[in-house]
From TrEMBL, chains A, B:
Record protein name field: Phospholysine phosphohistidine inorganic pyrophosphate phosphatase
UniProt gene name: Lhpp
Location in the cell: Cytoplasm; Nucleus
Record-level Gene Ontology MF annotations: inorganic diphosphate phosphatase activity; metal ion binding; phosphatase activity
NCBIfam families referenced in this protein's UniProt entry, alphabetically: HAD-SF-IIA-hyp3
Superkingdom as given in the UniProt entry: Eukaryota
Protein family membership: Belongs to the HAD-like hydrolase superfamily.
Residue stretches spanning the membrane: none
Species of origin: Cardinalis cardinalis
Length: 230, 230
């Protein structure tokens, strides 16, 4: 399907909430699976966070996955004035959570930037709490609201559109997550198709707030429809 | 002050949200400090939880402090159909949190019982996230509401009153926490004094929702006032 999009001359951008790896290693994995994708074609929360940190002169304390740390290599992390939270997995220790909490509660105006707000996800050895759960813990303890930079944040889709160089009405989002993918893209002025694969659940078709522009059975069918419309 | 209360013939009950130790070891610590207190004079969240578990035929998976486990010795914990959450401290590991989460999300109607909802507390080596933060993490991940059995739950004060054998209008709560101690007791029909020690902060005197029946500088002054009124 990606080859057909490329051959048609359409532009393509991958929007992922992956925060357990750098874009480089994410792309390496995709290329090994046969997907012809470059790093510039990936919009991910960590680079979006770096953009925001630079813009506001923020120096983060990182509570993220080991493999994500290189994304923040160029960012000044001395004397932190905010906390950046990602899916830290094994780094979500009691000591690390207390450390992030102490830094936040010690700030005059605590700033917590979260790379997502997922509830949980599935790995081969079972379900795992996602970054959103730990975000809620820190929000409650500090009585603050985190700023979320991954999907479904409007800014996130805007930066993907900027990368593509097209206005929202000329872009179509294809995703399996009714809220993060479909809802987020639509709020940004894009059309959005939901695929009936991956995270899709039949109950999504009765979602109280989000209604995709269309459902498709899979990515191939989404590409068929888009190419027909051209 | 406790001696003076005892000498006056007044009944005394200690209401604590302590969940890092059994009542036995809590009382041992108090007695070592010179306080003449018995186990029956202590109302604490773990025994309250045991009462609730028995009443509803619930078999808990425990995510609590090692030293609290003996409080649940008599409770059937096979094939758990609920999770009991306390201030587990070092037991708040990534693995243990995922395990509690998986049990909850696997239940048809997840039941999470929390021994408190504190945000954080201070120890000699610094501030620590309290049970409330981890409760919020699990609530969010499972999209549920926990049942809180410690202060300020109404049930908790009711069980202290039952232990004393007096109606609420004949009891006075003395505490340093404006919400957990004063607010909780008042909602139960008791009068409540706030001491200006411990957790007390000057901003408590402008609390938007809770107003103590009186402020006192310390426990001794509270006892003075009570004995004068007799």
């Amino acid at each position: 399907s990606l080859h057909r999009i490329k051959a048609s001359g359409l532009k393509l951008q991958l929007c992922t909430n992956e925060t357990q790896a750098t874009r480089e290693s994410f792309v390496r994995k995709l290329r090994a699976l046969g997907f012809d994708i470059s790093v510039a074609q990936v919009t991910a929360p960590a680079p979006a966070a770096c953009h925001l940190l630079r813009e506001r002169g923020l120096r983060p304390h990182l509570l993220v996955h080991h493999d994500l740390v290189p994304e923040f290599a160029e960012i000044d992390k001395t004397n932190p004035n905010c906390v950046v939270l990602g899916d830290a997995a094994e780094n979500f220790t009691y000591a690390n959570l207390n450390e992030a909490f102490r830094l936040l509660i010690g700030m005059e105006k605590p700033v917590l930037i979260s790379l997502g707000k997922g509830r949980y996800y599935k790995e081969t050895d079972g379900l795992k709490l996602d970054v959103g759960a730990y975000m809620k813990a820190l929000e409650y303890a500090c009585d603050i609201q985190a700023e979320v930079v991954g999907k479904p944040a409007k800014r996130f889709f805007e930066s993907a559109l900027a990368e593509l160089g097209v206005p929202p009405e000329q872009a179509i989002m294809i995703g399996d997550d009714i809220v993060s993918d479909v809802g987020g893209a639509q709020r940004c002025g894009m059309r959005a198709l939901q695929v009936r694969t991956g995270k899709f659940r039949p109950s999504d078709e009765n979602h109280p707030e989000v209604k995709p522009d269309a459902y498709v059975n899979n990515l191939a069918e989404a590409v068929d429809i888009i190419l027909q419309e051209l």
